[in-house]
Amino acid sequence: MAPTTTNTAQDPQALLNTFIDRRSIQLVSVLGVGAYGVVYLGVHVPTSRRYAVKLLNNPKAAETEITLHSRVSAHKGVLTLEKVVRENNQVYLVLEYATGGDLFSAITQQQGIASNNFAIRHIFTQILDAVQYCHQQGIAHRDLKPENILMFSNLQAKLADFGLATTQLVSAEFGCGSSFYFSPECQGQLVKNKERIKGYSTRQNDVWSLGVILINLTAGRNPWRQATMKDQAFASYVKRPQGFFKRILPCISDELNDLLLRIFCLDPSRRISLPELRLRIQYIRSFTATNEKKNASIPPRVIAKLPVEVEEAKPSRSSAPIVSFTQSLVHTLCDYSNGFSDDTFDGFFDDDDDEDDDDEPAIVRRAFVVKSPYPAPTAQVPSTPAACFSTSPCSSASSFDYPSTPRASPAELNKKAAIDVDALNHLSFTTF
């Protein structure tokens, strides 16, 4: 039977075993439910091919998601939007089905990613390339998190869920995204002069989110619950950034620690650019302190050491209006960043709340919003060219402009150690 207009928010099961797209796709099970709507497992009747079918609660708001996702859908690192079906006053997005679930599950179910240098590098580079492509197409994702990275065989990762994506370079839609992952400026905080900022860079916000994902991959933890001075862990970072990550995440290497200071630069205009971030990821010898000390190959099966709980977090999306990229807003951002220093961040944010949170890394938790493999190479990674990277935690490099992703030359590729593809079979993956 054909689906009828139903309140799926109240009963996601209501459309099971119904058909869409001229009865060619059957909705057979519920894959996920959120404020955005429901995702079903759909089966194409003539071919038995599986799809993820996303039914959106707000058809009008869906048009932006459809437009932006379609613009980048052809990239190999972005989940393919196969088609859009409009039936019975409802909008269905027919999406590529991810056979390996999401990255959140891959991390928390201890599938050999944490402490595996090659797996971390391989997955994170794919995410970086997808995000940079989106930025080059004029799109900021604004909801980067492991739940929105979908996994396939051979540790292939694809970016999904463009429900919060925007073409705005600067937005006043504060609190947009998932609280564990959005940047401090995205929350519209007060600064030294007690004036609230009027907008934030959507691309720089994406860079911040990528940093949290990198910590998730490496340590299986979050560095803080929310990047606000109300969070004691984040407040500790603001006041004493240099030793913060090594203190709360002793498992990370010195190389990664230095990189995290560049990613989590509080001045958004001086935060690391995506091309530099990608280059530094390629040159990191080890992401973890254990492997850094051993300076040896990663064993084929490595289990994350830290326990992880899964707990849903409340969605967050502000109703604030989008602002255009005007000259006055540029000045506002400049005023916002003038209070930062390479040496001290103490006192920049307005800290009116004395709430006590534990100064401990937060457990990785599943976050929902309104819109919501191989062993490491045995050869040494080439020495990092000092001229490529800034030595300051906050360099003057800005990621408002994104040149093409650096590509290794054939000569450079020949220097890299050959990776044993067959070794993939020795890793323990429960869903890939």
TrEMBL record:
One of the GO biological process terms: intracellular signal transduction
Domain Protein kinase: 25-284
UniProt keyword annotation of Phosphoprotein present: no
Residue sites binding ATP per the record: 54
Keywords: ATP-binding, Kinase, Nucleotide-binding, Serine/threonine-protein kinase, Transferase
SUPFAM superfamilies, alphabetized: Protein kinase-like (PK-like)
Gene Ontology molecular function: ATP binding; protein serine/threonine kinase activity
SMART domains found in the cross-reference section: S_TKc
Record has Transferase as a keyword: yes
Pfam families (alphabetical): Pkinase
GO cellular component terms, A-Z: cytoplasm
Domain of life: Eukaryota
InterPro entries listed in its UniProt record: Kinase-like_dom_sf, Prot_kinase_dom, Protein_kinase_ATP_BS, Ser/Thr_kinase_AS
Family: Belongs to the protein kinase superfamily.
Protein name listed in UniProt: Protein kinase domain-containing protein
Annotated source species: Lichtheimia ramosa
Lineage summary: Eukaryota, Fungi, Fungi incertae sedis, Mucoromycota, Mucoromycotina
